[in-house]
Design a protein that fits this description.
Length: about 425
């Protein structure tokens, strides 16, 4: 019997009770699957790092999984302050805001169950505008009655439900369909930047969710959630996912390789070890790396990669959070994960890509083939997209700067 000093939290997978989470006498996380879930033929593990078993995961072994469900950095600090909780108290934060998380997981105080009937609160333009401008002071609307929303990341965002272009807030345990991302303070045209890069990724053949820019009159981005799906009866279902930090048991404040976080070889190893289709997924991951180099996205870290579950077995999820960070002079140009031994785009040489190929165990010829192919395609595709993008959204100042970075980076990697 494991002693615990805290009330237990119940962990649901979709609408099924999957396990319990508590703190032991030394305030370490302990998670245990219920016997029914551990033995069920349709059960899915929370993580590849937390395989189905009846024995408890003690000594904080589950902490990284649950911590990675929560917001990060300043967003987490503000939410904690609003809820009068220490920002170091992940357990208490999960209790307060763990109702609508990434993937199929919901966390509730013991005795509180998911609502059978989901609820949605429609927002008119004025209400939506007021919510967007209040997000810096009230991230995820934490503390508002009936809302228990959580999304990982260091930027403001809000899970919402969209139907017929009407936007609603999910209440209780109702699932959302989209993620709303307002402008990033200090980064002009961040909404247009991310929309452009996400659409460009799709045109380059990368799997990405659909995105759309809305105005209230402020611009914001709506991103379709790939971890939500409609069943045949038009019921909205949660699909399970976990990011690569969760899979590798890395805490969110260590997501950057320079801080001891995951490297590209570790990310490829996740796919080799757990993916339903490792060869195809590793090629997709290679193309994601090249695309981020070409668009100048230095913030492509392991929390921007995820496994999406199909029954019990996962594969690489669609890509998200694609943005040209190098369009902003104040942001670093050092890549979040090294290519070989180099993390500066302008310093990347053929030897770095060859070294990278060796460390991730991919044929050098495949890496160079994709480099040549993608660098040869992206300039024309980006220029064509820019024409239609400006036609739809006006003269957005960031677009010429993104095109400049793409041209420069594409010429840099043409070996």
């Amino acid at each position: 019997m494991i002693n615990h000093i805290s009330p237990k939290l119940t962990v649901y997978f979709q609408d099924n009770l999957a396990g319990h989470l508590w703190l032991d006498s030394e305030r370490r996380f302990v998670f245990q699957y219920t016997r029914d879930w551990a033995k069920s033929l349709r059960a899915v593990p929370l993580s590849v790092a937390l395989p189905l078993q009846e024995e408890a995961f003690e000594n904080d072994k589950s902490r990284s999984f649950f911590a990675n469900l929560l917001p990060e950095a300043q967003i987490k600090i503000i939410i904690s302050r609003n809820l009068q909780i220490s920002d170091k108290n992940d357990f208490a934060l999960l209790e307060k805001i763990g109702g609508e998380c990434a993937g199929a997981i919901s966390v509730f105080p013991e005795g509180l169950m998911p609502q059978v009937k989901p609820g949605y609160r429609k927002l008119d333009k004025e209400s939506l505008h007021n919510i967007i401008i209040s997000l810096p002071q009230r991230p995820l609307l934490a503390g508002e009655e009936g809302l228990r929303l959580s999304l990982a990341g260091a930027q403001n965002k809000l899970p919402v439900y969209v139907e017929n272009e009407e936007i609603s807030i999910a209440t209780g345990n109702a699932p959302s369909t989209h993620i709303l991302k307002p402008p990033i303070p200090g980064l002009p045209d961040s909404v247009e930047n991310e929309a452009f890069c996400m659409i460009l990724a799709g045109k380059m053949g990368l799997p990405v969710p659909r995105v759309k820019i809305f105005h209230t009159p402020d611009a914001f981005l709506l991103i379709e959630r790939y971890d939500r799906s409609w069943d045949k009866k038009r019921h909205l279902q949660r699909l399970h996912q976990e990011d690569f930090c969760q899979a590798l048991q890395i805490m969110p404040d260590q997501k950057y390789e320079s801080e001891g976080g995951p490297s590209l070889p570790q990310c490829f190893n996740v796919l080799s070890s757990y993916s339903l289709k490792p060869a195809a997924d590793k090629k997709a991951l290679l193309r994601w790396i090249i695309f981020n180099v070409l668009i100048g996205n230095a913030d492509a870290h392991a929390k921007n990669l995820a496994l999406l579950y199909h029954q019990r077995k996962p594969s690489l999820a669609p890509f998200y959070d694609l943005i040209c960070t190098m369009a902003y002079e104040e942001l670093t140009d050092k890549l979040a994960m090294k290519i070989g031994t180099e993390n500066r785009v302008t310093w990347l040489a053929l030897r770095h890509w060859e070294n990278f190929a060796e460390t991730v165990e991919i044929k050098k010829s495949l890496v160079l083939k994709e480099l040549v192919k993608m660098s040869g395609e992206i300039i024309l595709k980006a220029e064509d997209l820019a024409k239609s993008f400006i036609k739809d959204h006006g003269d957005v100042k960031i677009i010429p700067r993104i095109l400049e970075k793409i041209r420069k980076n594409a010429m840099q990697v043409k070996y």
